[in-house]
């Protein structure tokens, strides 16, 4: 494996650990802890992170939906030409694959909102059945490895497969992502 591939795999795993929801873990003993704003994750943090990457890569505006009652859509992304895409985002362990049923739900949302298309973004990967359905329905799948590439600006668009110099991408991407995420956190708002 090349060092560049190792970099993106490591970053993908790091993204998962940064945004994972520890509340989904089943503790042996339930203990109430007072929320600590310095340690607790914002439930929208991963969605905001992906939305900011989408805006940077594709332009337009990516709006994160409310946490409840979102009808299976985490982000509405409107391109400058006014095409609207629905986006589902899942922060899963690398071994927890996205299944076909989750792609079907996203497709239903595409139809419901009369969207131009859909994106499914995860820190993990997709089952072969999920990949097949996504290809049939025109849904773009972004796994953790590819998300790390977009984050570091190694890929210029969702469809570009030719990475730039990865060391430049690391430095530029980290600076951009840190600034963008800090902006969201400081403002204390969801776009």
The largest pleated sheet is described as: 5 strands, mixed
Note the total helix count: 6
Unreliable stretches, pLDDT < 50, 5 or more residues?
A: 23-41, 158-169
What proportion strand? 5-15%
Protein topology:
Elements: H1 3-19, H2 45-58, E1 61-64, E2 75-78, E3 84-90, H3 100-112, E4 117-122, H4 128-137, E5 139-142, H5 144-151, H6 166-187
Parallel strand pairs: 3-4, 4-5
Antiparallel strand pairs: 1-2, 2-3
Helix pairs in contact: 1-5, 2-6, 3-4
Give me some keywords for this one.
single chain, 191 residues, alpha/beta, Trna Endonuclease, Chain: A, domain 1, five-stranded mixed β-sheet, 6 helices, 5 strands, 13% strand, globular
Task: Describe the protein.
The longest helix has 22 residues, at 166-187. This protein has one domain (3-22, 42-187): Trna Endonuclease, Chain: A, domain 1. The termini are far apart. Helix content is 44%, strand content 13%. With 191 residues, it is of the alpha/beta class. Helix 1 (3-19) crosses helix 5 (144-151), helix 2 (45-58) crosses helix 6 and helix 3 packs parallel to helix 4 (128-137). A five-stranded mixed β-sheet has the order 1-2-3-4-5, with helices on both faces. It has helices at residues 3-19, 45-58, 100-112, 128-137, 144-151, 166-187; strands at 61-64, 75-78, 84-90, 117-122, 139-142. The protein is globular, with a radius of gyration of 17 Å. The chain is built from six helices and five strands; from the N terminus they run ααβββαβαβαα. The model is unreliable at 23-41 and 158-169 (pLDDT under 50).
